[in-house]
Amino acid sequence: NAGVTQTPKFRVLKTGQSMTLLCAQDMNHEYMYWYRQDPGMGLRLIHYSVGEGTTAKGEVPDGYNVSRLKKQNFLLGLESAAPSQTSVYFCASRVYRDKNTEAFFGQGTRLTVV
Amino acid sequence: QQPVQSPQAVILREGEDAVINCSSSKALYSVHWYRQKHGEAPVFLMILLKGGEQKGHEKISASFNEKKQQSSLYLTASQLSYSGTYFCGTDTGTASKLTFGTGTRLQVTL
Hints:
The complex is a heterodimer of chains A (114) and B (110). Chain A is mainly beta and 114 residues long.
């Protein structure tokens, strides 16, 4: 099993450009999450999903949109990138089972906005 | 709102012990602990559930005080391989939103 796969691993964008980060999991997990990691800020939740077709805002959702059209995929979109969105983005997933299950993380996407 | 971790950073000599604390302002259903090595993804260590017992394996264990919404991670007789950043993740049980703290950077030296 591949687990959680993020695409791309690295990307440089110019201010105002748009892009989509793809997260794919092959574990049939219901829950999926997008986090951003910045020095000293830890992992901050951007958006999450508890199932196909559903999404919800996390702590820092502004400037991002998400979609979960298929259970295995969770897409994170930046419509107009800003330098403040330079960060490392992690996707995670976990299975629904009494809500006491661990999260599995992808390897991260390092995004630089210039 | 992110849980608060303390300390922010700690340096240990090999063989020493450390405690990392995690505190939330919300009632918690469960607390997760993860370790992240530089340039890598966070890796799961353990989960503590509301009403559950203290968990651990070998020299890493944790406790969960649900009344105080606090958890502590205990690292005993630290090894070089314990170096990394430790994150607590909290689940309030509402829609399984999983929120992480700001992290504790642990460095173990010879």
